[in-house]
Design brief:
This protein is of the alpha/beta class. The protein is built from 7 helices and 13 strands. A 9-stranded mixed β-sheet has the order 5-4-1-8-9-10-11-12-13, sandwiched between helices. Strands 3-2-6-7 form a 4-stranded mixed β-sheet. Strand 10, helix 5 and strand 11 form a beta-alpha-beta unit. Helix 1 crosses helix 6 and helix 6 runs antiparallel to helix 7. The chain starts with a strand and ends in a 17-residue tail after the last helix.
Length: about 270
Amino acid sequence: MKLLALTPCCVDYYPQIDKAFLGGNSLNVASMWKTLEPQENISIITCLGNDLNAKMILDYLIKKGIDISRVYQRDGSTACNKLRVDADGERYGIEGAWNGGVYETFVLSDSDWEVVTKQDVVAIPGNNPNFHEMLKKRHSQQLISVDYLDVLNNVPIRETLEFTDIAFIAAYPDLLQEYRELAFATKKLIVVTLGAKGSYAYYKGSTFFQPALKIDKVVDTTGCGDAYQAAFALTYYKTRDIQQSMFTGAKAAYLILQSWGGVGNPENVESIT
């Protein structure tokens, strides 16, 4: 099985504790995949700068056993961000803090696309600059897992939903009916995550619900959505069991919530599987 995360890696700095942690959708997703299935071929295609942040990311990916053969480096800065966490562990961005660095102008080459089309599972956000090309180049046997981010990001879902296999979106309870109707009308799998209120999945006329797992203290919500999506997509690819996929996703998110940063400390596989 070949799994690919296609989006930026970054370093998140938390001024309130004066510490930085590795993050970014692809790093978070690939890390969770490798935790769940260490024997599988997990890779990332992205672009980093030539700075300390890039070294931190590369060192982590190598140690984790993630394929970095398509992780490029260019002169300039690696994507980075500043975040804050409130007393309940909820993560918030700091306005104007995101710096996309060299990734902002990164475009996949023809040889990159050859590699992409050979993957079994591809995870990509709907706002990725390579997203529409990915949908054009995908082959019928691939499972395409798309993160449409938070509903406040306004990433269009209706225009591209038909080309996805799993569509994830973080939303609010009052929008559930809208996504339910959209999923049933298009016969596509839509998973709506609601944080502490759990998650819903809609597919071919059926509704599924998974409550969030109870936790004594949420340290940091950064990366919990990525962990959920990674575990869900992997389990769904293997089983096509939506309810089981949601439960595995909830377990993965639970683990990440217990520590700072997007990858947390996901070393205890038994707590997820």
